[in-house]
Design brief:
Layout: E1 8-12, H1 14-18, H2 37-40, H3 43-48, H4 50-66, H5 71-82, E2 87-91, H6 97-100, E3 106-108, E4 111-118, E5 124-126, E6 146-150, H7 160-168, E7 172-176, H8 188-194, E8 198-203, E9 215-218, H9 221-234
Parallel strand pairs: 1-2, 1-7, 2-3, 7-8, 8-9
Antiparallel strand pairs: 4-5, 4-6
């Protein structure tokens, strides 16, 4: 690997949160096994039965709020604090474990469990409390228009202008705990590689889009990613950007 990679982009999926006790959506014990996607994760479902959809995400909040970041999340914070390059996190996860770990520059492309968006005025409400059809928007005052700020199937991903800029300008692309089957996120590695980035995959097993990765590191992210980060920091070349040499 080159010394001092310019602009690091880390894509994370449910696998990085699994070691914090959170079920993945698509694994053998995944959340989608307990309900139908069509009932909780589509615009049509929310229009048809908003009470049921709100109840699903309110229950999910209770699980996610108790979760604590694991060594993989903490390794990203250590990298951001000790490496002389911008390190950004693009996550498919709706939990807030990156924020709990102190990660900065986090972009939730699938939304956040602790947010609801008003369909009337666009205001985003941040809360781990319950949101339902009785909730009043604190900005416009309209009741019953709050939707979980989760990207439902068929909706556009969030933060994509910023993500595209990051992919166009990164020198190192790291994918952690993603299945490689959900698009467009599965294509991020291809975009980064096309723009000259080195590409690394951290996962428990081989994924379907492994062709575009220069290196595959298999095993629990809580073990493999911290070791990789320690090596990056150890082999860095101090520059004026380095907070320890400034």
């Amino acid at each position: 690997m080159q010394k001092n990679c310019k602009n690091i982009v880390i894509l994370t999926g449910a696998g990085i949160s699994a070691e914090s006790g959170l079920a993945t959506f698509r694994g053998s014990d995944g959340l989608w096994n307990n309900c139908r996607i069509e009932d909780v994760a589509t615009v049509e479902a929310f229009q048809r039965n908003p009470e049921y959809v709100h109840a699903f995400y309110n229950d999910l909040k209770k699980e996610l709020v108790k979760a604590k970041p694991n060594p993989a999340h903490l390794a990203i914070t250590r990298l951001q604090e000790n490496y002389p390059a911008a390190v950004s996190v693009v996550t498919q996860n709706v939990d807030t474990l990156h924020e709990k770990a102190g990660n900065k520059n986090v972009y939730h492309i699938h939304g956040q469990i602790n947010q609801a968006v008003c369909l009337n005025c666009g205001h985003i409400l941040e809360t781990f409390g319950d949101v339902d059809t009785q909730t009043v928007c604190p900005l416009c005052g309209v009741q019953g228009m709050m939707k979980p700020n989760i990207v439902f199937f068929g909706e556009n991903l969030l933060c994509m202008n910023r993500v595209e800029h990051l992919l166009d300008n990164c020198g190192l692309f790291i994918s952690v705990g993603t299945s490689g089957v959900v698009f467009p996120a599965a294509s991020f590695v291809q975009i980064a590689k096309y723009n000259g980035a080195e590409t690394y995959e951290f996962n428990m097993e081989k994924t379907s889009n492994n062709f575009y990765f220069d290196r595959h590191i298999y095993g629990p992210a809580g073990t493999t990613l911290p070791a990789f980060v320690d090596e990056l920091i150890k082999n860095r070349e101090d520059s004026p950007q380095d907070p320890e040499s400034a």
